[in-house]
């Protein structure tokens, strides 16, 4: 996989328990030469949880990407007109952000980044992580699966088998064809109710 000279937006939403795995995917893309433009939802950017402090998470992302994090709608807006990204990864994508994307709502940094980016007819890759994938989120997943320019990291039920077996069940580096690009993104877990 070679992502040299590709500008990849990497948008992180508030599924805090999957951040570690998402960082692995981020590292894989950096290793492949991608120029990473980090984006965080307002919730992901500002919430301290038992999975880490907001500042700590921000610092880890900033140091990986080597640049500041887009975390407001004001800073996300130029992504469209300035054609800033070749591809946009949203991982983890919460049920909340997924619902907004499916229904044309753009009131957060991540959803506005997606809307702005889509006008350039370039790919969005979604790594869904939600505990209502067979509940309220199911219809939103279905709507987005059929939408042009939107690709899903393959997802499955997150059964409690332990990390190693989970990863064995899945391809650790899923290759997704996006026009001429191949973006490596680790599987992001999806809870089924
Ligand atoms: C500790 C913690 C873990 C969470 N994990 C998830 C999750 O895995 N998936 C999800 O859809 N929402 C999860 N949420 C809820 C979202 O953070 C919440 O719906 C938020 O509004 C999402 O905002 P965003 O989509 O703009 O990031 C979690 C919340 C907390 C506090």
What would you say this structure looks like, in words?
This protein has 193 residues and is α/β, with parallel strands linked by helices. The protein has a single domain, classed as Flavin prenyltransferase-like (Rossmann fold, 3-Layer(aba) Sandwich), CATH 3.40.50. Helix content is 36%, strand content 19%. The protein is built from eight helices and seven strands; from the N terminus they run E-H-E-H-H-H-E-H-H-E-H-E-H-E-E. It has helices at 19-31, 42-46, 54-65, 73-76, 95-102, 109-118, 136-145, 163-169; strands at residues 7-12, 35-40, 87-93, 124-128, 150-152, 174-178, 181-185. The strands form two sheets. It has a five-stranded parallel sheet, with helices on both faces. A hairpin with a 2-residue loop joins strand 6 (174-178) and strand 7 (181-185). Helix 1 packs parallel to helix 3. It is globular. It starts with 6 loop residues before the first strand and ends in an 8-residue tail after the last strand. Mean pLDDT is 83; it is low at 161-193. Flavin mononucleotide binds next to helix 2 and helix 5.
Please sum up the structure shown:
The protein has 8 helices and 7 strands, in the order E-H-E-H-H-H-E-H-H-E-H-E-H-E-E. With 193 residues, the protein is an alpha/beta fold.
């Amino acid at each position: 996989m070679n992502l040299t000279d590709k500008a990849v937006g990497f948008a992180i939403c508030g599924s805090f328990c999957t951040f570690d795995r998402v960082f692995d995917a981020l590292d894989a893309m950096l290793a492949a030469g991608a120029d990473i433009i980090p984006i965080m939802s307002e919730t992901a950017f500002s919430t301290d949880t038992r999975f880490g402090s907001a500042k700590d998470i921000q610092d880890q992302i900033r140091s990986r990407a080597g640049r500041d994090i887009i975390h407001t709608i004001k800073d996300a807006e130029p992504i469209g007109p300035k054609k800033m990204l070749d591809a946009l990864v949203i991982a983890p994508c919460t049920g909340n952000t997924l619902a907004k994307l499916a229904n044309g709502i753009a009131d957060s940094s991540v959803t506005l980044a997606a809307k702005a980016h889509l006008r350039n007819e370039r790919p969005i890759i979604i790594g869904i992580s939600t505990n209502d994938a067979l509940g309220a989120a199911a219809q939103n997943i279905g709507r987005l699966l059929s939408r042009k320019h939107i690709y899903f990291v393959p997802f499955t039920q997150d059964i409690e088998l332990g990390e190693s077996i989970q990863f064995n069940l899945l391809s650790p580096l899923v290759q997704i064809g996006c026009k001429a690009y191949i973006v490596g993104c680790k599987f992001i877990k999806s809870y089924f109710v």
